[in-house]
Amino acid sequence: MIPVIDMRKIGVFILVIFIISYAQSQRIEPRYLDVNLSLEERVNDLVSRMTLEEKINQMIDQAEAIPRLNIPEYNWWNECLHGVARAGTATVFPQAIGLAATWNTNLMFEIADVISTEARAKHHEYMRKNDRSRYKGLTFWSPNINIFRDPRWGRGQETYGEDPYLTARMGVAFVKGLQGDDPKYFKVIATPKHYAVHSGPEPERHIFDAITGNHDLYDTYLPAFEACVKEAGAYSIMCAYNRYMGEACCGSAALLHHILREDWGFDGYIVSDCGAIYDIYENHKIVETAAQAAALAVKSGTDLNCGKIYKSALAEAIEKGLISEDEINTAVKRLFTARFKLGLFDPDSLVKYTKIPIEVNDSEKHRALSVKAARESMVLLKNENNILPLKKNLKRIAVIGPTADSYPMLLGNYNGTPSRYVTPLQGIINKVGGHTEIVYEHGCNLVEEGPVKTYLSSEILSIDNDQGLKAEFFKNRDLSGEPFYHKIDPINNSNWIYGTRVPNLWMMQDYSIRWSGMFKAPETGLFNFTVKGDGGYRFYLNDQLLVDDWQSKELSSADGHMRLEKNKEYPIVIEYCRGTGRPEFSIQWELSEIDNFKKALEIAEKSDAIIFIGGITAQLEGEEMPVDYEGFRGGDRTNIDLPKVQQNLIKLLHGTGKPVILVLSGGSALAVNWEKQHIPAIVYMWYPGQEGGTALADILFGDYNPAGRLPVTFYKSVEQLPPFEDYNMKGRTYRYFDKEPLFPFGYGLSYTKFLYSNLICPDSVTTGDSITVSVEVTNTGKFSGDEVIQLYLKDIESSMPVPICALKGFTRIHLDAGEKRTARFVLTPKQMAVIQTDDDKNARYIIEPGIIEIALGGELPGSNSSTTESVTKRINLIGKSASVY
Questions:
Q1: What is the pTM of this model?
Q2: 455, 599, 698, 717: least surrounded by Cβ within 10 Å?
Q3: Residue 621 appears among annotated catalytic residues
Q4: CA–CA gap between residue 641 and residue 626 (Å, rounded)
Q5: One of 226, 273, 405, 641 is an active-site residue; which one?
Q6: Which residue among the candidates 163, 472, 575, 621 is catalytic per the annotation?
Q7: Which of 862, 806, 865 is nearest to 834 (CA)?
């Protein structure tokens, strides 16, 4: 019997199967998580699933989570200028300008590789704790490759100096070390900044318009950016605050689209400097509204806004037809491409960098590399009668000066927090303190006359046997309720608010902080405390209210006094509430009854040698700072002289008749004219990193032969320079400076001597061909040591503007006493080209027939240092003019 088929049951069965299949299909992972698809397919799929609001929320530095798509929040802001910064303990290397003074690209790569290793280790440790706040991501806003065109710029310390070639080579090495060698995934993403013509003045950076000719743009300001993009593959660029030739740098189609993307082939993302989109309409007045500014920036190519303007204004811009959603899509796709290329949407098993353990952070190996870099960075500027190295058997050495025992001086700016540090004083004690008496006196302030002022720091503060103070943070201005956050604050920054490193604290408008612990008096006497802050503050010591200015909402300062006994501990409580200005809070102390000059002279007269350690620090020069001492303005300097109070003390110490060794700290050139004439030995140590004191002692006492070279010209005074605001290069840097400097670019002495000989290169070359150059270098002295071989080119017969001479090659080599080595260089056609401009609008590289001169040595041609001898040769370029790309 044939069964009867119930079609209704079959229909129900098919429907059930369809529903089950559909439900299963919805559980299949979306295409953007399929690692077998192309990157483009994955990114397109992800962005296609997002709403317009969700897309816009991804275009700010604090990108929001999208739970329905399993996209976590991501904070794009991170820093690693000379070590992972602002994210807890990390290895701190010399400041960037000090790294440039090593003239060692191999070392630079190694340092960047270590930084990215620590960055990866820290990132994944934070992710395991679900901490996705600022400074925890993998997109780093470093390096700063702006040209340090004028020594007055306070942020020049963050750069690799004044020369486009040196900056490019150091920048390329740094970017490659950061981004890694994996063919699929970036280790971290580097962000060269601030594109493109940016170098102060700091107080006017939000309104300033930099004006140059096209020649200077292509000859000086662009080469390092081009090299970092085309050679190193930098995947991010940060555009600058200021305008260039009337256009906002973050809203310039010429800079961001035509040059960066079209000419150089840049395919990464562009991020604005923080608040730069706001500046476009509010300060530069290029457009009238936030919506217009946001649309202009995105259409020009700025994909990511450090700030909030995109979040609040892009939707309005679309509604008003100022920009399309397709243009938003382009920016968002670039941003997610970066996150995919970091492996943030892939299994850890596929990304080798996820396996880096947290134990590598701040390891002994990394700390040793920091010391090595500090040694290589230090520059011996003078060594009359070979007074250095000092003998290790001196009976008594006086160490004097305001940066001799300074922790902040070691670190510069944009720094991390080291687990250990060695100041110059401690380095000297560690080196010879076992058999030589080391006596120390601060001597003077950095700038101010009178009693020595010292920032209150963890060295004399404690809480429950830990250095520092207990810090409690409240989400109000009156310390009420329970704190939303608490920690042991190390108190290791002159600005306590900046030093807290509490995530997003700077962005909060209403908060208050209470610090508490114990204060140990370092001396007996009447202490004067100066409290300075942008809001309200109270200062209690030994249960007494010494300072009370709680109602203040603007930057102010107040003093309090108390007599204390040496080594006695007193309870201390400090309270602060946020004001209306830039968050700032600091406390300095001084002993008002002490004549510090007199104390310094007393110990100097009884010593065999005097080491004066002074200069300036990043508390005087830096980014948009509220500094108003004589010679300093808003983070910049108005003159480059060593501060007068230090000059006066050095002259008195010289008058004792005892040998004086001058050690200078700083991130830029110092005019030490009298000191160069009268002081027998001068060492420049920059901001040398966490254990810079160890490196300095190695040099002073002969365990390391210095070989650092100046990456900037040391001028005699600012009177030798054009106005600071003038961005034209005429009269600036060794390339266009025709006067006598105090110390030239590329300068640095050694404890040994080097002889250059047997320069080999062709007498003539056809235009468009490369030139191979070789030279023999012999260490003719008694010390082993490094030599920095520098190759300069001078165009003798160019029909177009050219530098006086220009660095075209360098290498750092080690030679034992008596050893000879051959160094080889290849000059490419582009390195021999000159820049041809048409009506100051277009530029191209041309090789002209004519005579060029090359010089090889350990210095700039004509420097005539006492430890190196240079060689030169002229070469005839023959044939027709040829274009180079």
A1: 0.92
A2: 717
A3: yes
A4: 20
A5: 273
A6: 621
A7: 806
